[in-house]
Design a protein that fits this description.
Blueprint (H helix, E strand, L loop, with lengths): L1 H7 L12 H17 L13 H34 L1 E4 L19 E2 L2 E4 L8 E8 L7 E5 L2 E4 L7 E10 L6 E9 L3 H9 L9 E2 L1 H15 L10 E5 L2 E5 L6 E3 L6 E4 L15 E2 L6 E6 L6 E6 L6 E6 L5 E2 L5 E2 L3 E6 L2 E3 L1 H5 L5 E3 L5 E7 L8 E5 L3 E11 L2 E9 L15 E4 L2 E4 L11 H6 L2 E8 L5 E5 L6 E6 L11 E7 L1 H7 L4 E12 L11 E7 L4 E10 L9 E9 L4 E8 L9 E4 L10 E5 L6 H5 L14 E5 L6 E5 L1
Antiparallel strand pairs: 1-5, 2-8, 3-38, 4-7, 4-39, 5-6, 6-9, 7-8, 10-11, 11-12, 12-13, 14-15, 15-16, 16-17, 18-21, 19-20, 20-23, 21-22, 23-24, 25-26, 26-29, 27-28, 29-30, 31-32, 32-33, 33-34, 35-36, 36-37, 37-38, 40-41
Helix pairs in contact: 1-5, 2-3
């Protein structure tokens, strides 16, 4: 669609078509070859210039003319877009203040305020979390004669927030250093050079405006949307990557946080890439997939353990584009969800929403052999649902067991038919822009948005499906994690963040007021569990208006049991506008954190985090200059407000 539009909007600078530069070059090649063939019988005179040489001498001038025409066309197109589409800042509620962006730090900062003690057997390594940090003050909307479009809450350029844990040579004194940095994708660099919002929002809004945003983004930048790279961080074969599923991963230097470029698996992968690739147990291969709005809608790939080759790729031949976010693996299989949250360009062209949760449509789970294809994938019909995150999958007898966070509606839903002037995002839906109480009761419709921990048992022999709610309904659980050594294998423990439902409703964005530990081999016995057969769950709830993001499991050095370790997470206390990091002992899950770090600056809410042990701890000190910080200038952070000259929004400045 976009390519057709691009061709239709190309500017012809002459009524009579002139040969293109590529055609001229091809003509030169042909004539050069023919002239060489005849050169043995008829040498070129030194006083008489060959016609080919004349044309070659004229080539730089032709190139310059072509470049000037292209630049003039681009400037005309930019002028038209700038005059037609007006950017404005999206309104920010007080309860959304910690979703606002921050500036990059000029230099890393030593953490000096630590309450408690970092355990002696806490490994050296990097705790890193990804999340949106929009340029130019925050998320934008556009207004034009064609209608309105706006960013949705999951957009915004990615920023990495990293904590580096180092030990002295004698293993005694600990040093913790923090740094942050934007992921510098190609589209990030484009807008930084332009120093203003340039890509038109192209996901939410009126269908004509979205279609034109697609077209103009493609014409100007050869992309329909920005490469966000704001969702997750993963490691494969000793290299580290930042990712969101609308583009390829970006390789990251884990110490400097510099962006090293796109990873396309040595030129073998040419489509979007999942934010949650999985390492296959036993082989170390990386299982990936990519969703696209045009056919093929879904392809699954397997990357070699050394990261150098794409050893397998298969089109699963889906008949719709489902917004798939995660994939599961077992020892032999890949596990794929085909759910009714769909992206449909044809629906958009007909005047409907681009994104829609079609709860009346089918839902199914596919079990695919590791190197299988569409024909060898076995599909199991399940109740319609929206599942973004899988905790784990494994094989048990004839069954493939799938554990994930399941809701009955989608928090990413459309604003189709709503007036963006009078409405805003609240709990994934649009409601009136009237004042909202900080803590309000939620309706039965809101209840559908909150995910519960769920189990599907898929019998590969009989085709039978058994599904049930595992953990009751006391809390909504999301962003699951396990000890990574058990990925694809039977595990006894899992961990999730707890959705704070009233705070999420009042802010319109998910907030997580604590953590949960799941005991899969123990049955709940406490009063208050809502039905028999639910697993045991322990809760670690935060104090006051404190919420977390990016939680990760850290295995204990020399740990003997699956739950030997800690959960580490960024938290933010909204009452005092202070960000911290908590380390929680998973063996004493309901107790106080063993350590709390007060961060020297605000850390916005984000998405997924990971703890990456460093095999050679000596790498940490020299690269982040920990030894130099013994005498460094530790600055107390104060916050000022700077006015963004492009958008008029306020951005927190670290000084």
């Amino acid at each position: 669609m976009a390519f057709t539009s691009k061709m239709a909007f190309q500017v012809n600078c002459s009524a009579e078509r002139q040969p293109s530069l590529l055609e001229n070059i091809d003509r030169f090649k042909t004539r050069f070859c023919s002239s060489k063939q005849g050169s043995h019988s008829k040498p070129i005179s030194s006083t008489r210039q060959h016609p080919l040489l004349k044309e070659l001498q004229q080539l730089p001038a032709q190139l310059e003319v072509s470049k000037n025409i292209k630049n003039a066309s681009a400037k005309l197109l930019d002028a038209f877009v700038d005059s037609t589409f007006k950017f404005s800042d999206q309104r920010v509620l007080p309860s959304q203040s910690n979703f606002l962006p921050v500036d990059e730090l000029i230099e890393p900062l030593v953490i000096t305020s630590i309450e408690g003690k970092i355990p002696d057997d806490f490994p050296e390594g990097v705790f890193i979390r990804n999340g949106p940090n929009p340029l130019f003050g925050g998320l934008k909307s556009t207004t034009s004669i064609f209608g309105k479009t706006g960013h949705i809450w999951i957009e915004g350029e990615g920023m990495l927030h990293a904590l580096y844990f180092d030990k002295d040579n004698d293993g005694g004194r600990r040093t913790v250093v923090y740094k942050n940095k934007h992921v510098e994708t190609e589209t990030f660099k484009v807008e930084k050079r332009r120093n203003k919002p340039s890509f038109l929002p192209a996901i939410d809004g009126s269908p004509p405006a979205i279609l034109l945003a697609y077209m103009f983004n493609m014409l100007r930048f050869e992309k329909v949307n920005k490469d966000l790279s704001n969702t997750n961080v993963f490691e494969h074969s000793g290299k580290f990557y930042s990712i969101s599923e609308n583009h390829l991963p970006q390789e990251i230097d884990i110490f400097s946080l510099q962006t090293l470029g796109d990873w396309d698996i040595n030129g073998a992968w040419h489509r979007p890439f999942t934010a949650h690739p999985k390492t296959a147990p036993g082989t170390g291969e990386l299982v990936v997939f990519g969703v696209d709005a045009i056919k093929p809608y879904l392809e699954v790939g397997v990357v070699s353990a050394d990261g150098k080759r794409l050893v397998h790729k298969a089109d699963l031949k889906l008949d719709r584009c489902t917004l798939l976010h995660d994939i599961g693996v077992t020892e032999r299989y890949n596990v794929i969800f085909d759910l009714p949250l769909t992206i449909d360009i044809l629906r958009l062209i007909k005047g409907g929403p681009l994104l829609k949760y079609e709860k009346e449509k089918y839902a199914r789970i596919g079990v695919m052999p590791r190197y299988g294809d569409a024909e060898s994938t076995r599909w199991f019909e399940v109740e319609p649902n929206c599942t973004f995150h899988i905790l784990n999958c494994f094989e048990e007898g004839d069954e493939v067991v799938v554990w994930g966070c399941r809701s009955l509606d989608s928090i990413i839903s459309e604003s189709y038919g709503m007036d963006l002037d009078k409405s805003e995002w609240i709990s994934g839906r649009l409601r009136s822009k009237e004042p909202v109480q900080q803590y309000t009761t939620f309706s039965s419709n809101d209840e559908l948005l909150f995910s519960r921990f769920y189990e599907w048992r898929l019998n590969m022999k009989t085709g039978e499906v058994k599904e049930r709610n595992l953990a009751g309904t006391k809390f909504s659980l999301e962003f699951p994690m396990i000890n990574p050594s058990f990925n694809g294998l039977k595990n006894n423990f899992g961990y999730t963040q707890i959705v704070h439902e009233p705070a999420s409703i009042s802010s319109g964005m998910p907030k997580f007021g604590g953590l949960a530990k799941l005991f899969f081999d123990e049955t709940a016995s406490k009063e208050g569990e809502h039905s028999e057969g639910h697993i045991k769950v322990e809760y670690h709830e935060f104090e006051g208006n404190t919420f977390c993001t990016g939680s990760a499991f850290v295995p204990k050095e020399g740990g003997l049991e699956e739950d030997d370790g800690w959960i580490i997470t960024f938290v933010h206390d909204e009452d005092v506008n202070t960000s911290k990091v908590y380390i929680i002992d998973t063996k004493n899950f309901t107790g106080e954190p063993v350590a709390k770090f007060t961060m020297p600056c605000r850390v916005p809410y984000g998405f997924h985090g990971a703890f990456i042990p460093i095999p050679n701890p000596q790498l940490i000190g020299p690269i982040i200059h920990v030894k130099d910080y013994a005498n460094c200038r530790i600055k107390k952070k104060k916050f000022t407000r700077k006015q963004n000259h492009n958008s008029g929004s306020k951005t927190e400045k670290n000084t």
